[in-house]
């Protein structure tokens, strides 16, 4: 069977391309659709269907642009009510793609419209199951997202539906089926996802905690809901975009690709109140940046951290990028629904610097310099990694303020004494540093290289949960 997984690491997202006898189908596409169109054209195939497993929360799907550009029919599962033309499949309905068949299996739980798609080859053999966010490798979809859109869909109700869907719809299928999920490790749509992006159903039954044969419904619900973190605030906003519709990516790009001089950039920032988003690497940002700009580097989990740190997808944005990187930044912003980029600094930060505009910097120290200070002065150290990372191991005496909670915990950063911030490698701590600078903090330094390099020094590391004194 000709099925291809198209994986995008920065979103931990998998789309799928199916082709047979000149017909193709795309499952859960990303916002930029031209690569899918090009892929089909290379096969001399016409895209017949765009199958959606559910209304996604962590990205804006490309189904509307694919329909507009190719004439493909959009397919959702039972109970879906999109604000645009789409085919709403019945449970068990079969679609043909060339010599292949695609069977829709309604599997509510992650969301009520969640649907998996059984792939059947030209000989009638069941080959694989595209599971969306219903079943991951090592995990299952979190059931607490839909309630942020529909209040009476509690996480307990959805978890119960998911239990039934897994036991009654998926686990009875052929053990040799290949499982093709929508996400891998790093996605916020689950909590224990594997780095592997495909597996057999047989192996998942043997290793996935949620598929244990002896697990009852109440135990499943309890275990599934334990340890869920608060979902990013952009998730329900992306869901509504996927339900109601959105601007074409071409429109978003036309609006955003406006090169600005330093003077025009400054005027537009003052007139609009736009967020200044600097996508350069942490080391370059630290050496000099436009005052009040926030650093989220492109060479990291860019879209996910944009979604975590910028609450409103409608926020107007002005970009500072390396020259030639503005289109990539605009595209990756649009993947998570941030469609209101209104321009970028022409030729990047050098344009600002060469115009003799005001510049700010972030102080950085090496782990070795911190080691010397730690031995004599015991500086206040604030660790902005996730709680699970901090609990695993951390500098003795450090305080944990996870980056995604920083805006709710600014009071824990002192203004009357110096402090040190760090993360694992320097990416997240520079996001934190830029936010602190924007909010008026100055007397702090960031650790270049972060915790991973600090472990190679003589700084004392705790490998267990150590009580700390809150500020």
Automatic annotation (TrEMBL):
<feature type="domain" description="Rhodanese">
    <location>
        <begin position="270"/>
        <end position="361"/>
    </location>
</feature>
<keyword id="KW-0378">Hydrolase</keyword>
<dbReference type="GO" id="GO:0050313">
    <property type="term" value="F:sulfur dioxygenase activity"/>
</dbReference>
<dbReference type="Pfam" id="PF00753">
    <property type="entry name" value="Lactamase_B"/>
</dbReference>
<feature type="domain" description="Rhodanese">
    <location>
        <begin position="375"/>
        <end position="463"/>
    </location>
</feature>
<keyword id="KW-0479">Metal-binding</keyword>
<dbReference type="InterPro" id="IPR036873">
    <property type="entry name" value="Rhodanese-like_dom_sf"/>
</dbReference>
<dbReference type="InterPro" id="IPR001763">
    <property type="entry name" value="Rhodanese-like_dom"/>
</dbReference>
<dbReference type="GO" id="GO:0016787">
    <property type="term" value="F:hydrolase activity"/>
</dbReference>
<dbReference type="InterPro" id="IPR036866">
    <property type="entry name" value="RibonucZ/Hydroxyglut_hydro"/>
</dbReference>
<dbReference type="GO" id="GO:0006749">
    <property type="term" value="P:glutathione metabolic process"/>
</dbReference>
<protein>
    <submittedName>
        <fullName>Metallo-beta-lactamase superfamily protein</fullName>
        <ecNumber>3.-.-.-</ecNumber>
    </submittedName>
</protein>
<dbReference type="GO" id="GO:0070813">
    <property type="term" value="P:hydrogen sulfide metabolic process"/>
</dbReference>
<dbReference type="GO" id="GO:0046872">
    <property type="term" value="F:metal ion binding"/>
</dbReference>
<dbReference type="InterPro" id="IPR051682">
    <property type="entry name" value="Mito_Persulfide_Diox"/>
</dbReference>
<dbReference type="InterPro" id="IPR001279">
    <property type="entry name" value="Metallo-B-lactamas"/>
</dbReference>
<dbReference type="InterPro" id="IPR044528">
    <property type="entry name" value="POD-like_MBL-fold"/>
</dbReference>
<dbReference type="Pfam" id="PF00581">
    <property type="entry name" value="Rhodanese"/>
</dbReference>
